[in-house]
Amino acid sequence: MSRIVETEGVMGGQPRVENHRISVVQIAEWVLDEGMAPETVSAEFDLALADIHRALAYYYDNIEAMDEWRQKRRERVQRSRERQPVPEDFTKPA
């Protein structure tokens, strides 16, 4: 049985499933935002179903902190998208 851990230097210190690089926020987004069943997340990412439920319980027990991690994730994704090069073919007028 895995625990939810926070390790400085691993995934920015965000809460994750012990011995995995899968964060509580990722699990919450898959289940809550994308509508994946906990059983599907368990099977696809080789996690015990109890780990999925443990992560969701942790998410709800720490909702304010999880909202902050989600915001940081959105900002990181946005910055990454802004840095992506734009192919010249798409920027030239037709």
Offer a quick outline of the entry:
The protein has five helices and two strands; from the N terminus they run ββααααα. α1 (24-33) crosses α3.
Might you state the CATH topology name?
A: Arc Repressor Mutant, subunit A
Q: Ends: how far apart? A: 58 Å
Percent strand equals under 5%
Query: What average pLDDT do the residues reach?
Result: 90
Radius of gyration: 17 Å
Order of helices and strands: EEHHHHH
Number of helices: 5
List the uncertain runs. Answer: none
Helix content: 55-70%
Strand tally is 2
Q: Which structural class best describes the helix and strand composition?
A: mainly alpha
CATH superfamily: Winged helix-like DNA-binding domain superfamily/Winged helix DNA-binding domain
- By CATH reckoning, the class would read Mainly Alpha
Task: State the strand order across the main sheet.
Answer: 1-2
Shape: elongated
The major pleated sheet works out as: 2 strands, antiparallel
- Please give the domain count: 1
The CATH architecture would be: Orthogonal Bundle
3D architecture notes:
By secondary structure, the protein is mainly alpha-helical. It has one domain (4-86): Orthogonal Bundle (Arc Repressor Mutant, subunit A), CATH 1.10.10. The protein has helices at 24-33, 38-44, 49-61, 63-83, 88-91; strands at 4-5, 16-17. Strands 1-2 form a two-stranded antiparallel ribbon. The protein is elongated.
Quick tags:
single chain, 94 residues, mainly alpha, Arc Repressor Mutant, subunit A, two-stranded antiparallel ribbon, 5 helices, 59% helix
